[in-house]
Structure formats: structure tokens, C-alpha cells
Amino acid sequence: MISSFKEKYDYKSYHVNKVNDMRYYCVSADINVPSVTSILKKTSKINNVFIKKFNTDSIEIGNFMHKYLEHYVSKDKDFFVQSENYSIAKKLADLVIEKFIDNIDEIWGSEASVLYKNTYAGTIDLIGIIDGDLCIVDYKSSYRNKSRDEMEEYFLQLAAYAVAHDWQYDTKIVSVIIFLAIRDGNYEKTIISSDELELYKSKWLARLDQFYKDS
């Protein structure tokens, strides 16, 4: 656990079920709500980033990277698995740590689940104070750089989390950040804030309405 980790809220830990290729968060004994990523997948146009096929190794590397970063930020012990994919994931995680996490002012939560009006839920990779502002961060791993068009769904995903966190905890998320760790050792940090963030919130809420109309 790093010194900047100061959990601000008692974030819930929801059980996640998968039914018919949809992920649901069990938020109470009789309420299950769809995940943000599942809603985006169901309302996506063809060729959307969320419906591309990823190979098993890439998925495992991404999962290992997230697990390693969660332990680094908020746990008392390191995460370790003896495998080649873990070694790749650790290098990517170390890049995120060196270039980003170790410079954050204050971290309020890591792998923090959020809920919005019993309509959807999701898990935020990291939330905290960055350069004096409250921000949400999502880590991504990739073989290559990505264009802003390719990251459109990522921005909607984070906008959804911002809407949920602001509603659930009466906060005001100022910006959202995508930190893309690339296999060749490079990285991209993309920030969405102000009017652009409000636009993505509106786009997300439109997708949410579409999902429930089509359900």
C-alpha cells in the first residue's frame, strides 16, 4: 500500500455474474444491474472497440496488470503469478506506476465499484486528487498507440463512472484520464474534462436510454 492511498469512502464490493454474455452486478439480494461495459457492447455499432475479438493472452495480461496495480496501491502484499504473461503485465504495470501513479497527490479508491440509480454499475480502476482536481483513471494495455476515435468507448465508460460516482457520493468529478501502457515501453495519457466531459456524459446517458428501450 502506498502512502498516497487514503480511502475516502466505504466503497461497496459487489458480486459479478455473467449471463448470456452480459455482466451483472448483484447490488442487493433481489437487484442485479448490468455493467457499463456490457451496456456499451449491446448498444455499439459494428467494429466498435468493445466488440473486437481479443486473444486469451491479451485478456490475461490486462487482468494481471490491473491486479498488480490494485495490490501496489491499496494492498499490504504484492500480487505475483509465475507465468510469462504475468512478466509482461508487470512491466506494463511498472510503467503506469513510474510515469503516473507515484505522482498522484492522493488516491481515494482502487478498483472501486459504483452504482447509478439501480440502472448500472461498474468498477473504477482508480479515483483521487490529481493536480488538485478530483479525477477518475482507467488503465489500458495495448500493443500500439490508439487514436481518439478508437478510444471513444473508453471515454464513454469513464463518463458513466463519473455520473455514478457523483450521484452515489455527491462528488464532482472534474476530469477522467485514460492511461494507455504500450508493450514497447511507451505510453499515452489522455485527459477529458470540462465541456468535453459533459458531452460524453450526455452521450453515455443516451446509450443507457437506448439500452433500456431495446431491452
Query: Structural class of the helices, strands and pairings?
Result: alpha+beta
Could you state the order of secondary-structure elements as H and E? EEEHHHEEEHEEH
The low-pLDDT segments are 48-53
Helix amount? 25-40%
| Residues in β-strands, percent | 25-35%
What is the total tally of β strands?
8
Q: Cα-atom Rg, whole angstroms?
A: 17 Å
Overall residue-averaged pLDDT value: 94
What is the count of helical runs?
A: 5
Largest sheet features:
5 strands, mixed
Provide the spatial order of strands within the biggest beta sheet: 4-5-6-7-8
Shape: globular
Distance between the termini: 42 Å
Textual characterization of the structure:
- The chain is globular.
- By secondary structure, the protein is of the alpha+beta class.
- The longest helix has 21 residues, at 194-214.
- The strands form 2 sheets. A 5-stranded mixed beta sheet has the order 4-5-6-7-8. The chain has a 3-stranded antiparallel beta sheet with strand order 1-2-3.
- β1 and β2 (22-28) form a beta hairpin.
- The protein has 5 helices and 8 strands.
- Helices cover 38% and strands 29% of the residues.
